[in-house]
Amino acid sequence: MDALIILSIIAFWFTTLICLKHYWSFLKDKREALEHVSDVTNTDPFEKKEKKKNRRAEIFSHVTKYADDFSDLGQRINFFSENHMVEEWLRKSGNPLKLTVARFQGLKIFLLIVGFIAGVLAVLIGLPFSQYMLVFNPVIGYFIPIILIKREVKKRQQALRRDLPDFMDTISTSLQAGVSLDQALREVILHFDGPIREEFTRFNQEIDLGVPREKAYRELLKRNENEEFQSLIKGLIQGLELGIPIAQTFKVQADDLRQIRQEQVKELAAKASPKVTLVTTFLIAPVSIMIIAGLMIMNMLMGDNSIFNLF
Known about the structure:
The protein is mainly α.
């Protein structure tokens, strides 16, 4: 009977592994098939990402609908997250989850309550350090949305900084070839992904709706805090007011940005040298000395010339 039970367990795990293997193969084949269909039909990958992002936002909206019940309380308990700060974070992060300020404020309180309930359950169950969980879980729940939205803002601005030089060079080349700025923006952004495309797609939509160009530029400034991007937009505003050639503006801004990036790389390299020296001095060197000393001691105690052989 025991042998039958053992064989059943082995068979169960064996079939489970086979199922997982075939499921992984199915996912791989599906991904390859979708990529092939996308290449054949010239489907824009950005549109698929946008659909996926919208679907994720819709699911998140259903999950966090209870946070709306705590929005008023969250707007009164606004430590480190006042309404104007939250509005700025959501704007600069691109708001991928389609959150409103009220729902964000309610989400903090909702997660605080969830953390408190989890701490109470930990105390009732008797988990180790449960008394600390009762205190820290609500605090962690409160600050999780703030930390995540700030991280999203930073990640988005870094992506903007990374793609900006290539974008400006491409726009400059198109303008020098005689293409208008609006047409160049519409064509070039199709070959980019991420914040660059999102921002200038929205910019083009505002222009189509009749928003004055200078106002649309200033909206771009409000949605992004990246210094290089702001310098570009301010240069465009100045060029619009003074009649400076736009192609030259893009070219100069791209060259300046690459120069700034080179200086930043040199600065990071200069800062890395003392850190490497510190690690070598306090970590690698002591370990190496201990290894050598250990080998010498082992040789003295257990080698052919051991000190015990002298007696």
